[in-house]
Amino acid sequence: MSLKIGHYKIMRELGKGGMGTVYLGRDPRLERNVAVKILRQQFYQDGPEFSARFEREAKTVASLSHNYIVPIYEFGEDGQWHYFVMPYMVGGSLRDRLQRGAVSLEEATEIVERIGSALDKAHSKGIYHRDVKPGNILFDEDGHAYLSDFGVVKLAEVSETFTKTNVTLGTPHYMSPEQVDNINVDGRSDLYALGVILYEMLSGQKPYDHESQPRLLIMHLIEPIPDILEVKPDLPQEVANVIRRAMAKDPDERFQSGEEMSMAVRRAKASPKSATPVQRPIKQEPTKKKSNSGRIILILIVLGIVFFCTCWILLSFFSALSTGSF
Questions:
Q1: Fewest CB within 10 angstroms: 52, 217, 231, 269, which?
Q2: Closest CA to 198 of 236, 240, 144
Q3: Radius of gyration of the chain from Cα atoms?
Q4: Could you give the count of Cα atoms lying within 13 Å of 8 in the half-sphere of its Cβ?
Q5: CB of 64 within 8 A of CB of 121?
Q6: What is the DSSP letter of 46?
């Protein structure tokens, strides 16, 4: 690919989502690789108004400074393109990791702690992510997790043209009930998504899944919260309790901060049951001994019936003799 955005050389595509496409870029001035996110063209149809909103939202997101948030190096426009420039996270995404299966409770706890802390920082600034998902949790070369892509969904929400399309703002598998209804969305919606991710990290599967997007969204609204112990019975009961609270339909019943959720996950990991897997009743096949006992009982019943019938016949016979019937 021979393309430049600003002074960045675009090398290859890293991923594509509802809001834009991310490319691996090269900064020739600093001689380092970067990630360049180019927003979808639907954004630009608002004209100059979008450019003003883009700059305002980009400055707000760029002001977020936190150890576990992927920083924005630069944002800008190049002809028709609006773009963000961020560090290239060589460890890939949580989505990539989950394609290989579930992660350990210890690793999941560390990820929840880091992402919960990042969310608390953003929420304290009045910034809500609205699209927390495994694809937006990235890892550095040492395997530490960071949260990326703040502000892009907010840009879509304020774009008049974008909201008239059929593009869902957010990712259906991780959308809270209030986000589905598009009412009173705040930081607790992000924590709901983190609860969904916790379930997926530990079980290797999504709590709600359906090929129909409308049906999937309805599941978030009305379906009971799945019990993770049904698919991972070796987990502590406390973990199931954490997930149940994080994914509560009513935001008031959820954790009210990332720190509160992180503390609950840490307690669950340290609970006594963490060392002793929960034993679920297993249906046993009848043993041979039990099978023989059943046959013996059946034989005794048959013998009892035969004995009763024999006695009845003999009594009838002697009764007939005494009356002279024979």
A1: 52
A2: 240
A3: 31
A4: 31
A5: yes
A6: G
Q: What residues are annotated to the active site? A: 131
Distance CA(81)–CA(76), nearest Å, equals 8
- Tokens for 245, please give them: 């609270």
Token pair of 92, please? Answer: 């890939």
- Compute φ and ψ for 5, nearest 5 degrees: -120, 120
Let me know: does 138 contact 146? Beta carbons within 8 Å: yes
**What three-state secondary structure class fits 144?**
coil
Burial class (CB in 10 A: 0-12, 13-18, 19+), 195: buried
Distance CA 123, CA 142 (A): 27
* pLDDT, tens digit, 9 for 90 and up, residues 33-48: 999 999 877 666 666 7
**pTM of structure:** 0.79
Total residues belonging to the chain: 326
Of 194, 204, 210, nearest to 243 (Cα)?
Answer: 194
| Beta carbons within 8 Å of 162's beta carbon, 6+ residues apart | 40, 42, 43, 46, 156
- Residue-level pLDDT, tens digit, the chain, 326 residues: 558 999 999 999 998 877 789 999 999 999 999 999 998 776 666 667 777 777 887 888 888 899 999 999 998 888 888 899 999 999 999 999 999 999 999 999 999 999 999 999 999 998 899 999 999 999 999 999 999 988 666 666 555 555 555 555 689 999 999 999 988 899 999 999 999 999 999 999 999 999 999 999 999 999 999 999 999 999 999 999 999 999 999 999 999 999 999 999 999 999 866 444 444 443 444 444 344 555 555 555 656 665 665 665 666 655 655 655 55
Question: Of all helices (H) and strands (E), which one includes residue 145?
Answer: strand 145-147
Give the whole-angstrom CA distance, residue 186 versus residue 303: 76
d(CA 143, CA 124): 27
Question: In whole angstroms, what is the distance from residue 310 CA to residue 300 CA?
Answer: 15
